[in-house]
Amino acid sequence: MKNLTVEIIHRAMDGDKEALLKILQHYEHYIDKYAMVTKTMPDGKIHHCVDEDRKAEIQYALIYAIKHKYKTKKL
Amino acid sequence: MPTPPLDESTELALFDSFVKKVVRNTAIKIINKAKKENQIVPDEAYISECTTEDTHFSENIICDRFGHEWLLVDVYLYEAMLLLKEEQIEVLIMEFQYGMHIWEIAKKLHISERAVYARKKKTFDSIRKNYKGEYNEKPYC
Question: Is A7 near chain B, with CB under 8 Å?
C-alpha cells in the first residue's frame, strides 16, 4: 500500500474523481488478473489476454462499492 | 461508549480487503453469467435448419460432409477438408460454427478435454499438411 493513503480513500468515498482514479490504478494488476480470458486460436495456440469489457465492469462495480458500500468512516 | 478511531494501517488493510473482495465477487458473478449464456447449446432441429445458401456470397464453396455443411474460402481448403475424418469434422463444426468451448465439446462427445484438444490439433495438422494453397493464405473455416 505504498501509494494509497487514508486521505485518498476518504476522498474516493466522497466521489473525488482523482482519488478514484488513483485507487483504480493501484489495483489495476489485480483487476487484470480477474479480467483475464483464455482464447484458443484457429491454429490451436492458446492466448491469455485481458477482456476489456470484463475489466470495465469490475472497475464500475468497484467504484460503486467504494462510493456506496464502504463504511469504515462511520466506525 | 464511542468506538475508538482506527489507525492508518488498519484502515488501509480493511480497505485493501474490501476492494479485493469486491473485485473477486464481481469477477465470479461475471463468469457465472457468461457460463449460463454459453451453456445454451443449439439443439438438433436448429442445426438441421441452419443453411448458408441465402446469407453468403455464391463464390464461397459449400462443403457438405457427414450431414454438416459449412462455407470455405477456397478450393485448396475444400480439398484438404475432404481428407478429414468424421470425428475431426465434428470437433471443427462444434468449435467454429457453434462457438462451443472445449469442455462443452468433451461433454457432448463423452470424451475427455485432453482428447478433444488432441483431436483438434490432429485436425489442424492434417489441414496444414494437405493444404496446397499459397503460403500466405492461412487455411481457416
Answer: no
Query: CB distance B3–A35 less than 8 Å?
Result: no
Q: Report d(CA A59, CA A65) in Å as an integer.
A: 10
- The DSSP secondary-structure symbol of B4 reads P
Q: ipTM of this predicted complex? A: 0.88
Q: Is B67 left (phi over 0), alpha (psi -120 to 50) or beta?
A: left
Residue that has been written with the C-alpha cell 438438433 in this structure: B44
**Considering only CB atoms, which chain A residues are within 8 Å of B11?**
6, 9, 72
Is the Cβ–Cβ distance between B130 and B83 less than 8 Å?
yes
pLDDT > 90? residue B81: no
Which residues in chain A have Cβ-Cβ distances shorter than 8 Å to B12? Answer: 1, 4-6, 9
Preferred mutation among B26, B37, B104 to probe A, highest tally of A CBs within 10 A: B26
What residues form DSSP beta bridges with A49? A37
B14·A72 Cβ contact <8 A:
yes
Of B22-26, B79-83, B99-103, B107-111, the one with minimum mean pLDDT is B79-83
Q: How far apart are CA B121 and CA B127, in angstroms?
A: 10
Q: Which amino acid is at A30?
A: Y
- Say yes or no to pLDDT of A40 above 80: no
Query: Can you tell me the distance from the alpha carbon of B104 to that of B95, in angstroms, rounded to the nearest whole number?
Result: 9
